[in-house]
Amino acid sequence: MPYASGLHYTVHPAEGSQDRPPLLLIHGAGGNHLTWHPYIRRMSGSTVYALDLPGHGQSQGAGRLSIEDYARDVLYFMDALQIGKAVIAGLSMGSAIALTLALLHSGRLAGMALLGGGAKMRVAKSILETAGNDATFASAVETINSNCFGAYASQDLVQLSRQAMLKMNPPALLGDFQACDQFDVTSQLCDIHLPTLIICGAEDVMTPPKFSRFLKEQISNARLHILEQSGHMVTLEQPEKVVELLKQFMNELSLQPGP
């Protein structure tokens, strides 16, 4: 079971010789690497890493209290594996981490994919008040998962997500949502010029499509795809379409001239 810089991860190597940068998958609040459907984690044509952030999945340690700290963990991970430059794909909180890396360490990114993201990610007061309390933790998890999936998602899928989140340490889940609630790079998006793929579910109530449209308007080199019949968890609800869009994005990046 591989670890780098204290983080558990999976890796699916590219077939044959590949000059393109690897793809790093960063999950959202309360998630882990399984938030990314196997179709995505095993996407052909690129080396794909899927991380468990600290305090999540099979990674040890405490969860972080800021997006900047999680971004630093991703950099340490890249350094440990001698990854000079990567494409960062982030879901929800993971997209905030990708945006932070793009602003603070753009030289380490060849591009980024923002799924279910936004320039700011305010969190409902009810979640902040219940997620970190043992007595109300299960109720918070129920609320979160009920809002994460669209009407077309199977109940088995929702139940699996609920069970995974219930295994988390309540303070770590609360820390994730506090970090999201404090995140706001609205005024800085115009400073990002990296190739950017934006994906959002049409039924997303956690970060509705208007947040993704704003990202598209403000990031100069961005494209937007809104997926029908999907909520916030596009990586599990529409994995085939996400793979198709990521493959196209990675293929086009590989054709662009280097710096």
Q: Determine and state the CATH class.
A: Alpha Beta
Element string (H = helix, E = strand): EEEHEHEHEHHHHEHEHH
Chain-averaged pLDDT: 95
Percent in helix: 40-55%
Total count of helical runs of at least 4 residues = 10
Q: What distance separates the N and C termini?
A: 36 Å
Structural domain tally? 1
* Order of adjacent strands in the largest pleated sheet: 1-2-4-3-5-6-7-8
Biggest sheet character: 8 strands, mixed
Q: What percent strand?
A: 15-25%
Query: What CATH architecture would you give?
Result: 3-Layer(aba) Sandwich
Tally of strands:
8
What's the CATH H-level homologous superfamily? Alpha/Beta hydrolase fold, catalytic domain
Shape, principal axes of CA atoms = globular
**Poorly predicted tracts of residues:** none
Gyration radius, rounded: 17 Å
> CATH topology, anyone?
Rossmann fold
Structural class: alpha/beta
Short description:
The chain is of the alpha/beta class and 259 residues long. The protein has 10 helices and 8 strands. It has an 8-stranded mixed sheet with strand order 1-2-4-3-5-6-7-8, with helices on both faces.
Describe this structure as you would to a colleague.
The protein is an alpha/beta fold and 259 residues long. The protein has one domain: Alpha/Beta hydrolase fold, catalytic domain (Rossmann fold, 3-Layer(aba) Sandwich). Helix content is 40%, strand content 16%. The chain has ten helices and eight strands. An eight-stranded mixed sheet has the order 1-2-4-3-5-6-7-8, sandwiched between helices. β3, α1 and β4 form a beta-alpha-beta unit. α2 packs across α3 and α5 runs antiparallel to α6. The relative contact order is 0.16. The mean pLDDT is 95.
